[in-house]
Design a protein that fits this description.
The structure holds two protein chains of two kinds. By secondary structure, chain A is mostly helical. Chain A has four helices and no strands. Chain A starts with a helix and ends with a helix. Chain B is built from four helices and no strands. In chain B, helix 1 runs antiparallel to helix 2, helix 2 runs antiparallel to helix 3 and helix 3 packs antiparallel against helix 4. Chain B is elongated, with a radius of gyration of 17 Å. Classes of the chains: A mainly alpha, B mainly alpha. Chains A and B meet through helix 2 and helix 3 of A and helix 1 and helix 4 of B.
């Protein structure tokens, strides 16, 4: 147990040097990302079809959901996070350093 | 006129989200130097990419069949060209993926091949972000108008 473990940001790969741990944590990150993306996609289809929102609000709502979903993709799929840099242990970033 | 069938847009989005996910699984398999899982994830990613392209092409071919050519109006060009550009990028992505799998088979998961696969996965995930913008900002104009 190291301090860095508590310092982990969502979407960030495991900070532990253990490779096995890293890959199961990696799979979890992609799965969470997929689940969130599916929820946001379902919400945007709901927003596009609902009559609850004012007409101008539909495109605004869709834009907000689109930006949220882009954020999800950046964090969970592209691993752009605010977590501590740990290029030596987490694939894929150890390759670019 | 309803230009887009929401159901097929939903299926296309599902294909892309899943292909992004399997692309991530491929990255993890590469990280573990697991060849079988790498080929399998790449294959699923490829199939989902082809399914997406087929569905989207069918959609646009249907639109052209009812007279909705991009030359007809600025509104239609605005729908056509971003989608056409992203489809072209995805075709390149699929070719890239096949080339990369050939490199994995011939050269193995060397550092160079790994780095190239990393570039591919960045490209593939970034294309997904482009699709998010397309289907929530560009396509609803066709659906809601």
């Amino acid at each position: 147990m190291t301090d860095t473990q508590y310092d982990r940001a969502p979407g960030d790969a495991s900070a532990l040097p253990d490779v096995e741990e890293g890959s199961s944590a990696g799979a979890l990150i992609y799965t969470i990302g997929l689940a969130l993306a599916v929820v946001l996609t379902a919400m945007s289809f709901w927003v596009a079809n609902t009559s609850l929102l004012w007409v101008g609000g539909v495109s605004l709502g869709l834009t907000v959901l689109a930006i949220a979903q882009m954020g999800i993709h950046l964090v969970f799929f592209l691993h752009v996070t605010t977590g501590p840099d740990n290029p030596t242990t987490s694939w894929p970033w150890r390759l670019v350093c | 006129m309803q230009l887009f069938n929401q159901r097929s847009v939903a299926i296309e989005t599902g294909c892309l989200l899943l292909s992004s996910y399997t692309c991530g699984m491929m990255s993890l398999a590469i990280g573990r130097w697991h060849y079988g899982a790498t080929y399998f994830a790449a294959f699923v990613t490829f199939v989902l990419g082809v399914a997406f392209l087929t569905l989207e092409l069918r959609e646009f071919a249907g639109m052209i069949a009812v007279g909705g050519r991009p030359q007809r109006s600025a509104f239609l060009s605005r729908l056509f060209y971003p989608c056409r550009l992203s489809r072209a990028a995805r075709h390149r992505g699929l070719i890239w993926l096949v080339v990369m799998m050939a490199q994995v088979a011939i050269k193995g998961l060397s550092a160079t091949v790994e780095r190239r696969l990393l570039c591919f996965s960045l490209f593939w995930h970034a294309l997904d972000i482009v699709w998010v913008w397309l289907f929530t900002v560009v396509l609803p104009d066709g659906v809601l108008s």
